[in-house]
Amino acid sequence: MASELFCGAFENILHHNYKMYRILKDGFIEIVEYDELLEKFSCTSYFFELKNIE
Predict the structure, then answer these.
(1) What confidence score (pLDDT) does residue 3 get?
(2) 49: which DSSP letter?
């Protein structure tokens, strides 16, 4: 089954309430601004952290 969910789609939906990070072998890096270069078609993992909403 093929899926066409791209990193940018998640970023567009979640960026107001979540911080986006790319998981690296030795830690994390925050993705401050979306860039098409993030769409690497290999095994890449991201996670989203809920921002402090007051």
Answers:
(1) 63
(2) E
pLDDT tens digits, one per residue of 2-54: 566 676 777 777 778 888 888 888 999 888 887 776 666 667 787 889 988 66
**In degrees to the nearest 10, what's the CA dihedral of 53, 27, 30, 50?**
-20
The contacts of residue 50 (CB under 8 Å, 6+ apart) are: 17, 18
Q: Taking the domains of the chain in order of start, what are their residue ranges?
A: 7-50
Contact 7, 34 (CB under 8 A): yes
Cβ atoms of residues 46 and 52 within 8 Å: no
Q: DSSP H helical segments within 1-54, as ranges?
A: 7-14
pTM above 0.90, yes or no: no
- How far is Cα 32 from Cα 43, in angstroms, rounded to an integer? 21
